[in-house]
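Journal club side-thread
Mid-discussion, someone asked how the predicted structure for our own chain would compare to the paper's figures. Pasting it here so we can look after the session.
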Amino acid sequence: MKKTVNQNPRIWTIRLVMTMICCALTVKLAVNAATPEYKEAALNQGSYTVNLPISYGTIYDRNGLPLVNRSSEYIAVVRGDGASAEAVLPYVIDKDEFYNKLSSGTPFTCKVNTDKIESDSIHVFEVPVRYDEEQTAQHLIGYMHDGEGVCGLEADYDYILRQDNGRTSVTFEVDGTGGALSGENSLVRYAPAPSQGVVTTIDDEIQHICEEAAETLEKGCIVVMEVKTGDILAMVSKPSYSLSNMEEAVSSEDSPLINRALYSYPVGSIFKLVTSAAAIDAGIEDFTHNCTGTVKIGSQVFGCHNREGHGMETLETALINSCNPYFISMSQKLSPLDLFETAAKLGFGRGQELSAGIISSEGYIPTVKELILPAERGNFCFGQGKLTATPVQITRMTCAIANYGILPDVRLIKGITEDGEVPEETVISGEQVLSTETAEKLRLMMIGAVYGSRGFNGKPIGISAGAKTSTAQTGRFDENGVEYCHGWITGFFPANIPEYAVTVLAEDGGYGNEAAAPVFKEIAEEISEGF
């Protein structure tokens, strides 16, 4: 009786393919061997070195966790003969590339899915992958091209991240055609893993929370700062982009390559916090106004979002109601110089250099001469008109309110590391721009805006907070005549001892309470779970 042999069709297919390749190579070598050039080359046997990809320095978060080089892949160095090809083929990821390289007859590299390949003619190395498919903090980190940083921190710290640590390589003894000689040992040289890098202030966990929360934003950004230090703990800009499809990113009308946290926009009602600060310092915080739904300044009529009006209001209730007529009316009692100086002290009109190539816009605040005009002053007091500011500036202002009037210096970089260790902390710096009393009153008003407003969508569960929303007009309209508006929220938490300041911008997203406030709520709740 014949014995039945259990034959695996996949194995036989692989062997058939390898046999065909080996036959083709044999024929090629036989033809070449008859030529004078081959006979001369055979006398000149030498070595052939295969280099692995260079590993570059790392960009770290504030706790020493990598923001790049977070994952790894396996790369096999293959001798290039039939035996090595047959041994590695079942594990090869890109078969087409593999066959193209194999046809050259020289040693080569290929990506494989394991490091457990039993063959003396194959060396497998685990190498870092520079970027994840969905790269965290991509607008801050930037990207490389051909081994050089193009933008972001990759470009600013290119001289640190691209230090020459050598390359891991495998050297084979080869014949005159470049084919590895069977039976000869290969020489493996290992380059030291790069330990140098840049330590940022980004908190990887908070950055991840914000990137998850930003999924509801088609366009916009999120900025999170540590209240006392001004350290940027997270910065997200939407839309994101894919490094594998840069042509689409460059041509997109949504401009995914720009970092929206650094661009200036009309800010709307969150600027009422600045107007409130000027009013408190000017001693007119007791100002009251009867909102009837409109207010007239000269020949210009300004409307309220509540067409029926809010009735008699104080500064606190006007901020909770976000009543434009109240602040417009109060603006006529304020000095243009006082208004300008209050805004300037809180960081408006000044850009922030986070690194050599990451610099925020200055935005624009009207001049004192412009603010002398009553209507211009009225627009300015509720954040419209010529005023523009960046999300970074707004977050910094919120830090000052939450931090007893001290405006912190904004920081993204903690320092350089040669060994992967986090640098020692530097002295916290900032400037007292508001009195403690004024800042405390503003803080309480922001808390009141969260808990005193009906239908406020930014009230977090499990943590207390203070915040202010706004809906900023843009003067641009869609095909149906509906104006595009930017939805904003800026706030802090916990309410009594603030640690985090958060600003969310929903560019062209509509109302702040609908588009931005829920994002703030999610971020506050997720971060507070770690308390």
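Post-session note: Residues 1-7, 25-44 have pLDDT under 50 and may be disordered.
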